[in-house]
Amino acid sequence: AWEIAKFLRAARAKGRLALALGDFNMIPLSLAHQLITTHGRAVDSWRALHPHSSIGAAIDVPEIARNVPMPSAKYSLERNGATCDSVLNTWRWSKQQQKALKSGSDIQIALDEPDPRAKRLDYIFLGGAHEQWAVRRAQVGMVDRHPDLKVSLSDHFSVEDRKSTRSTLKWS
What we know:
Largest sheet: 3 strands, antiparallel
Order of helices and strands: HEHEHHHHEEEEE
Number of helices: 6
Structural class: alpha+beta
Distance between the termini: 26 Å
Radius of gyration: 17 Å
Number of strands: 7
Mean pLDDT: 89
C-alpha cells in the first residue's frame, strides 16, 4: 500500500493521471486503504460512487458497528461492490455444493439470499492529477458462471465499467 501510494503521489507531482487496480486484499477504510487514499491522494472509484457502501463483511466487527441490515447477494453486488466471498461465487461454496456441481447439478442461488461474508477486496484507484476527472460508472462483473461447467470464473468477481468492453472504467 505504501509503495502504491508513493507511485500515485509521484504521478500527481508530475501532473499525470495514474490508475492502480486489482486485488488488494484489503477492506475499505482499512489502514492500507487509507494509505493509498490519503498519502497517495487517490480516489477509490467504488466509494466515489457509493460512499455509504460496506467496509467489510456483514459479520465483521466494523460492519456490525454500522448497524446496517444484512445485505442480500444483489445488494452486495450492486451497492457494496462485493468482489469476494459472495454466496454467488462457487469457489466459496461448501464442499457439498461444489460436489453437486461436479456431478452435473445446476445449483441456483437467489439474488435475495443473505450474503453475510461478501466483501470488497478489489479496487480501481484513480491517482495523480485527477481533479479534472470524475468516476462515471462502475459495477461488479464476471458474476456469470461458465456455461458448461457451471462454476464461477474466478474466486473474485471483477470491478469494471458498466457498459464498455474496451476499458475497465470510464472517466469523464
